[in-house]
Amino acid sequence: MSETVKPISIILMIVLALIWGSSFILIKQGLVVFAPDQVGALRVSSAFLFLLPVAFTRLKNLKNHHYPILFFSGMLGIFVPAFLFAFAQTRMSSSVAGIMNTLTPMFTMVMGVLLFSQKFRMIAIVGIVLGFGGTALLILSREGGQVTGINFYALLIVLACICYGANLNFIKFKIADLGALTITSISVMLIGPFALIYLLGMTDFTTQLTTAPGGWKAFGYIVLLGVMSTSIATFLFNRLVKISTPLFASSVTYIMPIVAVLWGVLDNEKLYAGHYIGMVAIVAGVYLANRRGK
Question: Is 148 buried (19+), middle (13-18) or exposed (0-12) by CB count in 10 A?
Answer without folding.
Answer: exposed
